[in-house]
Write a structure and sequence with these properties.
This protein is α+β, with helices and mostly antiparallel strands. It has 2 domains: 113 residues, Dimeric alpha+beta barrel (Alpha-Beta Plaits, 2-Layer Sandwich), CATH 3.30.70.1060; 32 residues, no CATH class. Helices cover 34% and strands 25% of the residues. It contains 4 helices and 6 strands, in the order βααββββαβα. Strands 2-5-1-6 form a 4-stranded antiparallel beta sheet, with helices on one face. A two-stranded antiparallel sheet has the order 3-4. Strand 3 and strand 4 form a beta hairpin. The longest helix is centred in the last third of the chain and has 20 residues. The radius of gyration is 18 Å and the shape is globular. The protein starts with a strand and ends with a helix.
Amino acid sequence: MRFMIIVPASPETEQGTTGTEQQFADMQAYNEEMFKAGVFVDGQGLHPSSKGARVSFEDGDWVVTDGPFAEAKELIAGFTIIDVSSREEALEWLRKWPVSCAPVAGQALELRQVFAPEDFGDGYTPELRERDEQMRTEAARNAARG
C-alpha cells in the first residue's frame, strides 16, 4: 500500500523559506531510515504558490489563475510517498517525522492512501492497466535520465 504524507504550507514556506541546516539534516536522516527499511518511494518540497497556478474548467474553457493564493493553511509545501503493508505501519512512520520539521501550530501532516490499480474495479480494464504500467515504466526511465 502506498501512502502520501502531505506537508502543509506555512507563512514561511509561502515566502520561499526552505529550511535550516538542522531541518535538512533531520529530514535527510528520516528519509534515509525509511529508505533503509525499504518503504521510501519519493519525497519533494514544493515552491511557494506565488510560482504556481490553478487551472479550472469554466464555461467550456480552461482558466488559469496565477499564484500566490491567499489561504496558506490550504496549500501544500511538500510530500513524501511511502510503500508499506498497512495504514498502521504508515502511521508508525508518520510518528517518526522529525520534530524540527513539524507543521506550525494549528496545522497537521496529512496521511492519504494512494489508489492502486486493483482499487478501480472492472472499469479499469486489463488493456488500460497494461498501458498504465507501460507509462509508469517509461516515466521511471525518464526520471532516471534526470
